[in-house]
Amino acid sequence: MRQGWRWYGPDAGVPLDTIRQAGATDVVSALHQVPIGAAWTREAVSERKALIETTPPGRTQLRWSVVESIPIPDAVKRTGAAAKAEIEAWIASMEAVAANGIGIVCYNFMPVVDWTRTDLDFVTPTGSTAMRFDQDKFAAFDLFVLERSGAQAEYSAEARARARATFEAMDEAEVAYVTNNITSALPGSTTEPLTIPQFRDKLAAYASIDARQMRAHLVGFLEAVTPAAEACGVKLTLHPDDPPRSLFGLPRIASTAEDYAALFDAVPSPANGMCFCTGSLGVRAGNDLPAIARQFAARIHFAHLRATKREENPLSFHESAHLEGDVDMVAVIHELLAEDAKRSPETSIIFRPDHGQRMLGDLHEAGSPGYPAVGRLRGLAELRGIIAALTADR
């Protein structure tokens, strides 16, 4: 498998030598400066590719191998194949990527909110900090800040009582912090930052859309884009929902093995693939990650390897160190290596250490939440160690 590293571009303040020093060779990046829904140009992709791949004398060559992500506009999620202009623009972006020799495109189909956390620097017993999803804080926001219509009926009496106690214990700064974390769009998000009124309006637009309809919209999108993906040699990889369950009453349809099986049955094109994110899928106790990796092995072209740890309230979780959470990382990597052994070097699975705890020098530097250099370096080293052990006799 090929070792990747997510890079948010030159404006993120992270030099490419950081990636080299981490030991990765494959860069995962995107044109985050392009507005959602606007078509990427070949020239803009080429400029980013040149920045990544033009190698100073004596430096290790890097390769831009994965685009994460080309955002799918809200209109596609709400109306599916009817959003023809938005889908055509998305195809144009994909074709611009393919024209520059990049063959893997990651995307997600989460409506209104992308990956969601309530805390960005939850202090762990080691003194490192981690991102966290606190169910009671989330419910407090949903019930008493957003005041979502119909939300009361979706929580048990006990959950509502805990949410109220949590809300009443928070001061204005804490309420603002949680609100910002949920509504502002975290790094790499493919949804727009929202004010509370905008948030309510977005939710209202999905009031009549259930999981069945949302899946139909995703299938309609895939039926429109996979022929173009096949023609230009691109593998599409759908990232799981994060967390893998409904938030704010919204349908989420990439949370389980059954969800993915339904999509692959509906659109069997070999271009229709999966981003296997162990952290997202691992939040859901019923997801057997090694079994999912084995079931969809041929569809996995890109993997996010990280671990999450469910807490006393199993709806709460935090980002653990890569080998310390609920994910059996050794078993997962065993399955991925078995698949990778069947492939050519050019079609090898690309993985990256996803997220990471802030530790050591990370604690004293500003950076993108979830993407600290040292925390990810630790994760990559641990993943590399597993791979070395599992392949020692080959």
From TrEMBL:
<keyword id="KW-0408">Iron</keyword>
<keyword id="KW-0464">Manganese</keyword>
<dbReference type="Pfam" id="PF03786">
    <property type="entry name" value="UxuA"/>
</dbReference>
<comment type="function">
    <text>Catalyzes the dehydration of D-mannonate.</text>
</comment>
<dbReference type="GO" id="GO:0030145">
    <property type="term" value="F:manganese ion binding"/>
</dbReference>
<dbReference type="InterPro" id="IPR004628">
    <property type="entry name" value="Man_deHydtase"/>
</dbReference>
<dbReference type="GO" id="GO:0008927">
    <property type="term" value="F:mannonate dehydratase activity"/>
</dbReference>
<comment type="pathway">
    <text>Carbohydrate metabolism; pentose and glucuronate interconversion.</text>
</comment>
<dbReference type="InterPro" id="IPR036237">
    <property type="entry name" value="Xyl_isomerase-like_sf"/>
</dbReference>
<comment type="similarity">
    <text>Belongs to the mannonate dehydratase family.</text>
</comment>
<keyword id="KW-0456">Lyase</keyword>
<dbReference type="GO" id="GO:0008198">
    <property type="term" value="F:ferrous iron binding"/>
</dbReference>
<dbReference type="GO" id="GO:0042840">
    <property type="term" value="P:D-glucuronate catabolic process"/>
</dbReference>
<protein>
    <recommendedName>
        <fullName>Mannonate dehydratase</fullName>
        <ecNumber>4.2.1.8</ecNumber>
    </recommendedName>
</protein>
